[in-house]
Amino acid sequence: MITSPWGSLSTIRVRLTAALAAALLPVLILGAIQSSMAFRREGEIVRQNLAASAERSAATARARIEAADILLETLAPASVGLQCAQRLAEVTQRIPGYSNLIRFDRRGRVACAAHDVPSDPARAERPWFQQLAEGDNLVVTRDPGAVYGREPVLLAAVRSTDPKVGFDGALVAVISLQSLAPRLADRSLPDEAEVALADGQGDYMNLTDREAFPALPRDWRARADAKGSVVWYAEDRRGQRRVYSAAPLVGDDLYVILSARSQGLFSWARLNPLTGLLFPILAFVLALLAVLVVTERVVIRWIAYLQRIAALYARGRLTVRPVQAEQAPPEIRDLAETLEQMADAIVGRDATLRDNLAQKDALMREIHHRVKNNLQVISSLLNMQQRALTDPAARAAMSDTRQRITALALIYRALYQGPDLKKVDLRPFLEELTAQLISAEALHGALVKTEMHVDALVIDPDRLAPLALFAVEAITNAQKHAFAGRGGTLTVTFKVRGDEAELDISDDGQSSNDVLTASGVGRTLMTAFARQLRGRTELVRNETGGVTVRLVFPTPGLENTVKPEDQSGNQAAA
């Protein structure tokens, strides 16, 4: 029976696929581990680059502030005079990052400036101005006490002195916080990086994308001051996971915050297909497909072909030859040759068996023919002996014996003349047996007509013999008691009713009631024959007033039927 190639876990396809999958699984796992390590390594690189960028940005900002100190000290002697404002304006134009350059006197008043300066009457009392007055050479502050620009700015102030009076005011550089923040175009920054500036309290003062910066963690400032920079992971306002880095920009008052997108393993694998899981998975799938294709082309299709050939052999078509197997691998060709040799051997064996069966059939027919001839010889001898007897009882007994032998001879003739030595068609046999018994007495008595109603049934000789002898006894009794001197009609009826068969032999004579209760030799023989058939016999009065002899027995061929649930052995295994 040809079933689905994938219908069972024990098929070659499934087993080879499972074996290859198990063999390649370590490669796939190794590829996944390597991809995970590469992902972590790249994530660590992103963290390091981000921390380095934050520290580098802080260092750049501090360098700009130090450069402002040098610039202011350089400009100090030249910032007094009629062209002070013009010179300071030229410097702001040539050096980017400075929003304004201002010269204050010792009372905090504006001496000159590159651009407009907001009014601040209390400037001389501001902390940063007081620090310069007390002797600090450089003061950097984010809170000058007045608004010095349209955007957040940082003031870098240097102390100006006069040998005669000492403290002589300050020279201030107004630096835009935006100029201190790192540029997004910087190639050292990771992709999709964002920049922000925050004060020491964690409030953002300047940022490139507000949605990318959530509230800062509690300990970020302490860690940044202790280590120079700090890196952490958090979700932005959109719910996307990002990596953040912070570094102090100006003391503990200003910090630069950098942010980059933190990719998950699968999103990273999608963005890095060739260096991620694609190669291991692709190799895994291609190897499986290659094995399946090779298995199908080299093994499976030839096995299926030989399976079809074997199915044809099972149906008896032994002349078919697996000629297509000549294109198969050597192992398959050897198997095909074996099947072909097996078919040839079966054909030769079948021919021998048919010859032997034909010889056996001929011998059995000859044996049946000779047995029939011998029984006819015995019947002829008994007939000669019967004519020599003068005692009527002896003549009747001899006639009964001769009729029984004739019935047996008729069985053997039906066997060797029929198409099957083991089966006999019951209908013609009963017709011929009845005709012989009636014709044998037709010359010595009144005319007896016969009516036959026989169902078709093929029966074996073992059951036919007691059935035929039972019919002989019943017909003989009817001739003796019902038709003697008057004739009549003999009706022979055989019906198959399911699991039981019934043979009725009826006459229309006027037999006495003694016939129904008699226990002679004929009645004894009929009872014995019924027992041989595992049946029962009845003797009853029929509707015409005559007697009906009935034999009921299991229908041949049905009494030995095995129920499906009782099957065992080879029958069940088939």
Automatic annotation (TrEMBL):
It comes from Phenylobacterium ferrooxidans. Residues 297-351 form the HAMP domain. One of its GO terms (molecular function) is kinase activity. Gene3D superfamilies: Histidine kinase-like ATPase, C-terminal domain, PAS domain. The chain crosses the membrane at residues 277-299. SUPFAM superfamilies: ATPase domain of HSP90 chaperone/DNA topoisomerase II/histidine kinase (SSF55874). It holds the Pfam family HisKA_2. Its EC number is 2.7.13.3. It is found in: Membrane. PROSITE patterns: HAMP. It comes from the Bacteria. It catalyses: ATP + protein L-histidine = ADP + protein N-phospho-L-histidine. InterPro entries: HAMP_dom, HATPase_C_sf, Sig_transdc_His_kin_sub2_dim/P. Its main location: membrane. Keywords: ATP-binding, Kinase, Membrane, Nucleotide-binding, Phosphoprotein, Transferase, Transmembrane, Transmembrane helix. It is an enzyme of class 2 (transferase). This is histidine kinase. The lineage of its organism: Bacteria, Pseudomonadati, Pseudomonadota, Alphaproteobacteria, Caulobacterales.
